[in-house]
């Protein structure tokens, strides 16, 4: 991101942004954005993890921990027991049709191919808008492709569908698109709104007439790098759209969204 060069503005000037015109008056409005922003109250305490199976607090072999995501009006803790689980969870949470995600479900009884009883703990159950629920097992590709895993999962799938979910899927590192993951991490870092700044960015987005890079757009409206996360939120909620699928950076081209 380039530093904002419009802090001192000639009130007779206008800045042209790829066919759209942002007046100096609009830029001056931004000078009071921060001062008018209400002081955010103390963040609500996140709801407890819903894991039915304990996740280690630390381990030498795996990347373990918790993240906090917005579940409706609540802040929800979600545990993960590997880097793959962390990445898969973020990609699910920031899908447009996402509704909820639960981790480490209660044990599911099932019968092994040899007829012996066993139990399985799904890593996640993702609920999508419309109510469809999908149980997720996260595994390295080298394990997911083995005959033993695939035959066992066929039995687990039979026990799960219609009982605790509508479908069963396995997620490996091959299923995680690096562009989708990059953008999900950005959306996660920008999940908390900045009301005054967000409103100003949305207002300016409505004036766009053609593609423009995020950096040029932010410089043109007088906020430069401080508005980058506001643009990320605008993309997430449809106020702006990517001109083409790409990792979201300052060079990324955007257009006005349908919700702008």
Q: Which terms summarize this structure?
A:
three-stranded antiparallel β-sheet; 260 residues; 9 helices; four-stranded mixed β-sheet; alpha+beta; disordered N terminus
Walkthrough of the structure:
With 260 residues, the protein is α+β, with helices and mostly antiparallel strands. Helix content is 30%, strand content 23%. It is built from nine helices and 13 strands. It has a four-stranded mixed β-sheet with strand order 5-8-9-10, covered by helices on one side. A three-stranded antiparallel β-sheet has the order 11-13-12.
Mean of the pLDDT scores? 86
Q: Terminal Cα separation, in Å?
A: 24 Å
Q: What is the number of strand segments?
A: 13
Structural class: alpha+beta
Largest sheet: 4 strands, mixed
Strand portion, in percent?
Answer: 15-25%
Principal-axes geometry comes out as: elongated
- Order of strands across the widest beta sheet? 5-8-9-10
How do the helices and strands follow one another from N- to C-terminus?
EEHHEEHEEEEEHHEHHEHHEE
Evaluate the radius of gyration: 23 Å
Number of alpha- plus pi-helical segments: 9
Identify the quaternary structure here.
single chain
- Unreliable residue runs: 1-32, 34-39
The amount of helix comes to 25-40%
């Amino acid at each position: 991101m380039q530093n904002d060069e419009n802090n001192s503005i000639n009130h007779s000037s206008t800045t042209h942004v790829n066919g759209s015109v942002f007046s100096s008056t609009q830029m001056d409005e931004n000078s009071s954005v921060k001062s008018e922003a209400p002081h955010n109250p103390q963040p609500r305490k996140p709801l407890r993890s819903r894991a039915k199976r304990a996740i280690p607090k630390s381990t030498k072999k795996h990347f373990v921990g918790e993240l906090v995501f917005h579940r409706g009006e609540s802040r929800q803790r979600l545990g993960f027991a590997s880097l793959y689980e962390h990445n898969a969870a973020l990609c699910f949470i920031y899908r447009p049709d996402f509704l909820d995600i639960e981790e480490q479900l209660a044990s599911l009884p099932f019968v092994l191919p040899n007829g012996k009883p066993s139990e399985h703990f799904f890593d996640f159950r993702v609920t999508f808008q419309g109510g469809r629920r999908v149980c997720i097992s996260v595994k390295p590709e080298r394990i997911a492709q083995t005959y033993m895993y695939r035959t066992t999962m066929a039995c687990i799938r039979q026990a799960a569908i219609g009982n605790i979910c509508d479908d069963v899927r396995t997620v490996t590192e091959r299923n995680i698109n690096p562009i989708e993951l990059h953008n999900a991490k950005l959306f996660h870092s920008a999940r908390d709104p900045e009301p005054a700044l967000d409103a100003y960015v949305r207002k300016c987005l409505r004036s766009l007439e053609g593609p423009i890079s995020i950096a040029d757009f932010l410089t043109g409206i007088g906020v430069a790098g401080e508005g980058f996360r506001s643009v990320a939120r605008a993309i997430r909620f449809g106020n702006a759209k990517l001109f083409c699928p790409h990792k979201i950076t300052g060079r990324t081209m955007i257009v006005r969204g349908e919700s702008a």
